[in-house]
Amino acid sequence: MNVESFGDIIKITLPTPFPVGDVNVFLIKGDRLTLVDAGVKTAASFEAFTSGLSEIGYTVDDIEQAVLTHHHPDHIGLLDFLPEGIDIIGHPYCKKWLAKDEEFLKENFLFFRELFLQAGLPPEAETMLGKIQSPLKFSSENSALTTAVQEGDRLPGLEEWRVFETPGHAQSHLAFFRERDGALIAGDHILATISSNPLLEPPLNRGEERPKPQLQYNESLRKMMNVPVDTVYTGHGKEVRNIVPLITRRLERQHERAMSVKEMLKEKPHTAFEVCMRLFPAVYKKETGLTMSETIGQLDYLLHIGEAGVERDDKGVLFYFPL
Ligand SMILES: [Zn+2]
């Protein structure tokens, strides 16, 4: 059984090939039958999706629109199987990730190459760089964002639901809140048992400054503390209630992690890559994108709160030191 009902919110749990495990998608019957998020594009995921739908008397063809919490492959893959021509609603940043034209993918690659160069990755790390785009094979291949929404908007066809921009885990990240019962569909912004990773991504427009996902994430968490949330419907795992203590804990832990990075810097100035190898000796090669995101996140945070400074050497590599 992969279907659970919470009043008019129906949760369907789908398998993914990623370490995170299953992903949750939601069906909401508003003016239009709406799917929030769309799993990965694999046979097993599609099969679980159609059998979940049939348990509650629907087929894929009944879905009238899709709403995306963010553009990651485990949240958009099944869009390709939805009825042609339906509205796909999300943050403007999703547009490029759905279109995935070659120029954009190249831009993405170059963004990481430049960033990793500054971070002090050795030249042989180019192979690690190559892997960064490999999860895309589980993503949607032929769907397009039709409707962009932003902070404060009401979701078309689901007028009770208000949009909150919650960047950090993804630049496109949105959460949807319904005042009537305090329901929050939060994607990967708030998860029950793990703190979600703020991920490095290129800016929305080329040439803009690099987003600082850890700082954005903390800001987006704090924002949710002021919203009267009763139940959070998460992208992975169980529902979450009572979010204020959870958010407080997550923010405190992140501060502690950053301060332990500062301790390393006291030994000698470090590049981001050197910090990364020390924080994640077993996985940095296999999960370079994730571990470098986590590392640079802590360093961005230390710079932001004035606990570290940074200097560039003549090759453009950044060295961080304590303040
Ligand atoms: Zn995600």
From TrEMBL:
Origin: domain of life: Bacteria
Listed GO MF terms: hydrolase activity
Keyword vocabulary terms for this entry: Hydrolase
Domain Metallo-beta-lactamase, first and last residues per copy: 22-236
The protein, known as: MBL fold metallo-hydrolase
